[in-house]
Amino acid sequence: MKLVLAIILLAIAVLAAPLVFSPGGSAVTATPPWEIATTDGGKSRVFGLTIGESTLGDARHALGQDIEIALITAPGEHGSLEAYYGTFAAGMVTGKLVLTAAIDESTLSAMLSRVTKTEFMESTTRKSALHPDDLDRALKLKIRAIGFIPSINLDEQTIIARFGEPGERIQGPEGAEHLLYPARGLDIIVDPKGKELMQYVAPGDFDALRAPLARGPGPAAPAADTVEEAKAPPPISSEAESRP
Predict the structure, then answer these.
(1) Domain residues for 142?
(2) Residue 171: alpha-carbon gap to chain centroid
(3) pTM of the entire structure?
(4) Is residue 31 within 8 Å of residue 45, measured between CB atoms?
(5) Are the CB atoms for 102 and 54 separated by under 8 Å?
(6) How many domains does the chain have?
(7) Which pLDDT tens digit goes with each residue over 42-61?
(8) How many CB atoms sit inside 10 A of residue 164's CB?
């Protein structure tokens, strides 16, 4: 599973979390969303987790046992493995948290072949329950990306007061704007019509997140089933998935 597609599915999963996941468990950390530590090795640490090093098992140990893990698959794509907390308190900020695991395609395909249950969103994206035998394997997978959607709307002034001025701004569809912080591995989607989304990746992988945003919308595509899905970066064809 390549990083850009993982981020696309992460964005869909976070923004449509009430449709994709059950209400989910709760988790608490003293670390607020704007407290991001970076390392010389191109990684970052947020919510007490180091992206690219910490595992889903580490997250369950640090944030709480009541975590939901599932396979999320969009049409025509291989999918991703996500872990979800329906209620997440990051310092004084509450919201929803989704963790995307780093997983190779062969392992993902094997897990998909053993799923015990599959459900559909209002769109055609599927959520599949892991076979019990695959849960331990999933908990050993490293975290590749983190998505957080606050329960309250954050305006641009508040975001900049907490996170600082972005290194770059990119306009998205539906009036949304991406505030990019490359050195911190962070993309904040500011949506005047809905909730904000914070996408965290390792700073060393940030170019893979930025690239589809910088290209802008591709050829006309069928309308998204939800406004939330429209805020995700444009999908990438399977042939283009030879990128690192």
Answers:
(1) 3-242
(2) 19
(3) 0.79
(4) no
(5) no
(6) 1
(7) 999 999 999 999 999 999 99
(8) 12
